[in-house]
Amino acid sequence: MTYKQIKWMILFVPTLTVGAWEYVRHQFLLSYISMNVGNWLTPVILYLVSVTLLTKLFRMLERIQMELQHERAAKAAFEAREELARELHDGIAQSLFLLSVKVDRLEHNGDQGQYRQDIYKIRKTVHEVNRYVRQAIANLRFDPTPGEMLATNESLDYKVRQMIHEIPVHVDIQWTIPDAALTPKEKIELLACIREAVVNIEKHSGASKGWITGEGDQDQWKVIVKDNGKGLTADPFQFKDRYGLNIMKERAEDMNWTLRFLSDSSYTTVEISKEGEHQ
């Protein structure tokens, strides 16, 4: 039975039931059932029909609506996944092309100062391509089947929780940013920044515990990655070999986000925030 047929049946079944009962009552049962008793029987019959037939129709209608919602959710998630794939593909392709140009220039460059600078840029590009590939594997390794999409909802919260399972440091997560508040591009860039911060917790901080919090809405949000490691003794962006941190900074600048590093004797904090529009 189609969705439209169920709706029409829900509308007409009570009307036809009452009409049929009143016709039978007035034509054949007036000599057996008084008018007062017949008036009481009308709502009772309507209730019985509603409990039996209409309840079943409503369940069918709800099931069809849930299936439609699931299909829409799966389609939206698949479209978002395709968008993520395009973004990653474009990033990898552009980075590899840039790398080839730099290698060609390096072969014909005799200036030692420029040579070292080009080597640094090539290493940075290779590092960025590697991160694009890792992110592509993490985000696109599974087929976007409706059941899996609905189970995980493909939320950034879910991806972050999956990410921290790969490191030995215990990380607590508190995430309240609605997934709909982030565009596919924002998800890519924010996940990459969080991954870099988490990798730093694992490799450089010597921390025993970390925390990730995300709060806010579509217009204004804040993500904090904190650990109880040894902290930073200087501005991390002044070192050219910190490719990951510099790429994180570039990502934040490209997205017009605010990136801050805070460090003291107890905690190191990476804060990424999107500020709301000023009125």
Descriptors:
five-stranded mixed beta sheet, alpha+beta, 279 residues, Heat Shock Protein 90
Question: What is the secondary structure topology, with strand pairs?
Answer:
Blueprint lengths: L2 H26 L6 H73 L4 H29 L5 H7 L3 H9 L5 E6 L8 H22 L3 E8 L4 E7 L15 H12 L3 E6 L4 E7 L5
Parallel strand pairs: 1-2
Antiparallel strand pairs: 2-3, 3-5, 4-5
Please, could you describe this protein's structure?
- The protein has a five-stranded mixed beta sheet.
- Helix 5 (156-164) runs parallel beside helix 6 (184-205).
- By secondary structure, the chain is α+β, with helices and mostly antiparallel strands.
- The protein has helices spanning 3-28, 35-107, 112-140, 146-152, 156-164, 184-205, 243-254, and strands at 170-175, 209-216, 221-227, 258-263, 268-274.
- It starts with a helix and ends in a 5-residue tail after the last strand.
- It has two domains: 3-73; 155-279, 2-Layer Sandwich (Heat Shock Protein 90).
- The model is unreliable at 142-153 (pLDDT under 50).
